[in-house]
Amino acid sequence: MSAGRGRQRRATGHAGATGIDLGPLPGLLGYALRRAQLAVYQDFFRTFDKIKLRPAQLAVLVVVERNPGLKQAEVATALGIKRTNFVVLAHSLERRGLVERRASAHDRRSNALYITDEGKALSRKARQMLEAHEQRFAAELGEAEFGRLVAMLHRLADMEAR
């Protein structure tokens, strides 16, 4: 039993797909999350390779399109990206002509981000591809389970904010 939760963990000694004894790993939340994340990201990379878009870039495009004029620091914070990493990310999107940085109307020392027409066109195409990507996982789990899984993951992520 897991400590005080009344739930039984998977038995230790579970053999993975390679036949290697993984011990208690398959019963651990972090291990299971990481394996699932790898599966999701591998599918994402296969799907979005055609348009050369990575998960963080797509997230920035979505946020900037829906919130034009946000400062770079606000977008970085909203997405949980370190500011130093975000500068490189924003620069790569700007170099591709997908977003543009302008001096903030409220703070000339900060840059505000805006999606370009080319960025909007790519975002439309990416949303269609994203729907197909997400649907592959929803089909594997079933719509109801998929929705519950996403909701549960948000609950776990929100624990840090409390």
Layout of helices and strands:
Layout: H1 29-48, H2 55-66, H3 72-79, H4 83-95, E1 99-103, E2 111-115, H5 117-141, H6 143-158
Antiparallel strand pairs: 1-2
Helix pairs in contact: 1-5, 2-5, 3-4, 5-6
Descriptive notes:
The chain is mostly helical and 162 residues long. It has a single domain, classed as Orthogonal Bundle (Arc Repressor Mutant, subunit A). 58% of the residues lie in helices and 6% in strands. Strands 1-2 form a two-stranded antiparallel sheet. Strand 1 (99-103) and strand 2 (111-115) form a beta hairpin. The radius of gyration is 20 Å and the shape is globular. The two termini are 27 Å apart.
Give structural attributes:
mainly alpha; Arc Repressor Mutant, subunit A; 6 helices; 6% strand
Structure at a glance:
With 162 residues, this protein is mostly helical. It has one domain (28-161): Arc Repressor Mutant, subunit A (Orthogonal Bundle), CATH 1.10.10. The protein has helices at 29-48, 55-66, 72-79, 83-95, 117-141, 143-158; strands at residues 99-103, 111-115.
